[in-house]
UniProtKB/TrEMBL annotation:
Keywords: Iron, Iron-sulfur, Metal-binding. Residues 512-541 form the 4Fe-4S ferredoxin-type domain. It comes from the Bacteria. This is NAD(P)-binding protein. Pfam families: Fer4 (PF00037), Fer4_20 (PF14691), Pyr_redox_2 (PF07992).
Length: 543
């Protein structure tokens, strides 16, 4: 906030305000906006603190609209995001992090229930953008480009939209009614969606239909393979194929299923196998649990559902009806080494969950496109080495392959595409200084335990694809939002107003925060010391 000019106030000569004590000051307080850690770590770039503020006030539509300024898929994200924001939350150093993901899901579900829609652009730009892929990156890019008034066409090779959200995330984590509804809301803005449309030469399509720019958002849908000696390889398949087939025609995996791998996809397949009727679903992983790339809460849920784990093991051979595994041991550097000890396990099918690659066919028809392994190289604003062709999501080098990261890529690319079509270069706004835990006065905040989301009972989890983790009701969602500390940003608690010994803090009205009357502020710094959220800083007085 800029320095305030003196206020015209009629003062009683007998009050302390009659003396312009501010003239004694060598330093002065200023109101600041610091970057809260939740906002700083969100890959989608959400203004989390802002929409939590609206949510705790009970203004859910305002909260949802603030949230969707950056992320158009809150009901999806509230289910599948691994919420790094909560890992960074300052409240976690007091008791437990704010349940940001749970509140996001509540707002997303509330929007679907109330039928809230995105506004169509006020004016058309006349520019057209081709988006290849309807996964999270493509949907995000299309949404943000459409908000800017550009014409957007999404082409999708599958018969339904959603990309790996549909064909890689099981229904027990992401119900298809939620996915379909959030995709449709983007389409209703005027985005054209062409399903069952495979594109092999994107530049030819761009030229034929007159698109001004292109965004590539192809997911990593090709499974990595590993050589396993097999007398009969017919019962060896991959995780991507299994999860894709489950969507339409559930595969016959048999009574005993072995999954080879340790990532989240391996966990998804193991839990899916149990739901398809497998008596035994066993994950074979060559390292220990603490080295497993799968998220711990997913491992915990899998174990609850009866999935078994063979740690420090690797598959050496697969025969009809069985596999041979070799036990491993960690060396002094933590790497697994073979021990020469073997074990045979019954297995009707073996599912390889060793990671995914991006399909290269589309990229082969783009001369000059820079690649690194199976990833596309982009610059700081998501543009590839081919002018006017941008990319994001799983196919871009570096970063995690998650829905949240992909949504962030789509937003950033959309802003860069908009600037590029106007002959400019997108420049992200500078970030504020961080709101660290040390800047908070935590005594101000009451103890409040985190709300636990409801979970489906174990029996139904093992036999149905019903959603496992439930959502919060309105009361719990509001409570959880109110646990936010508002790190680094004034929430009008009146603390500075109450502690100022010189009555130099001026209330500007609800929602307008405060100002300092520097005629009377002595620069004692009491307001800085007692601000709960660290929203006041001290600067030296200019003489």
């Amino acid at each position: 906030m800029s320095i305030q000019k003196p206020f015209a106030i009629t003062l009683d000569k007998n009050t302390s305000l009659a003396n312009h004590t501010g003239s004694w000051r060598s330093k002065r307080p200023v109101y600041v906006d610091r970057l809260p850690p939740c906002n700083a770590t969100c890959p989608a770039g959400e203004n989390i603190q802002n929409w939590l503020f609206h949510a705790e006030s009970g203004n859910y539509e305002a909260a949802w609209r603030s949230l969707t300024e950056n992320n158009p898929l809150p009901a999806i994200m509230g289910r599948v995001c691994y919420h790094p924001c909560e890992g960074a939350c300052n409240r976690g150093q007091l008791d437990e992090a704010v349940g940001i993901n749970a509140v996001e899901r509540f707002l997303g579900d509330e929007a679907l229930k109330q039928g809230w829609a995105f506004a169509k652009p006020a004016a058309e730009s006349g520019k057209r953008v081709l988006v290849v892929g309807s996964g999270p990156a493509g949907l995000s890019a299309a949404y943000h480009l459409r908000r800017m008034g550009h014409g957007v066409t999404i082409v999708e090779a599958e018969t339904a939209a959603g990309g790996m959200m549909r064909y890689g995330i099981p229904r027990y984590r992401l119900p298809r009614r939620v996915l379909d509804a959030e995709v449709q809301r983007i389409v209703d803005m005027g985005v054209e969606l062409r399903l069952d449309t495979r594109v092999d030469d994107v530049l030819a399509m761009q030229a034929a239909e007159g698109f001004d720019a292109v965004f590539l958002g192809i997911g990593a849908g090709i499974a990595k393979r590993a050589y396993i000696p097999a007398g009969d390889a017919s019962h060896i398949t991959d995780a991507v194929s299994v999860l894709h087939e489950v969507e339409d025609h559930p595969p016959l995996l048999g009574r005993k299923v072995v999954i080879y791998g340790g990532g989240n996809t391996a966990i998804d397949v193991a839990r899916t196998a149990k739901r398809l009727g497998a008596e035994e679903s066993i994950i074979v992983y060559r390292r220990t649990r603490d080295k497993m790339p799968a998220h711990d809460f997913e491992v915990k849920e899998a174990l609850e559902e009866g999935v078994k784990m063979k740690w420090l093991s690797t598959i050496t051979e697969a025969d009809a009806g069985s596999i041979t595994i070799e036990k491993m041991a960690l060396d002094d550097k933590g790497f697994p080494q073979p021990t020469g000890e073997f074990e045979t396990l019954a297995a009707d099918s073996v599912v390889l969950a060793l990671g995914q690659n991006v399909e290269q066919t589309l990229l082969e028809h783009m001369p000059g496109l820079e690649l690194k392994w199976d990833s596309v190289q982009t610059d700081a604003v998501m543009m590839t080495s081919v002018a006017g062709v941008f990319a994001g999501g799983d196919m871009v080098a570096g970063g995690e392959r998650t829905v949240t990261v992909s949504i962030g890529h789509g937003k950033k690319a959309a802003r860069a595409i908009d600037a590029w079509m106007r002959g400019e270069c997108y420049q992200p706004a500078p970030k504020h200084e961080p709101a660290t835990f040390e800047r908070l006065n935590t005594w101000y905040y009451a103890d409040a335990e985190k709300t636990v989301r409801p979970v489906l009972d174990i029996i139904r989890r093992q036999s149905t694809f019903d959603e496992v983790v439930g959502g919060l009701d309105e009361g719990n969602a509001m409570y959880e939002a109110r646990r936010c500390l508002s790190c680094g940003n004034c929430f009008e608690c009146d603390n500075c107003y109450g502690v100022c010994p010189d009555s130099a803090v001026i209330k500007l009205g609800a929602g307008k925060r405060f100002a300092f009357n520097y005629d009377y502020c002595k620069g004692c710094g009491l307001c800085v010391e007692e601000c709960p959220c660290g929203a006041i800083a001290v600067e030296l007085e200019e003489k």
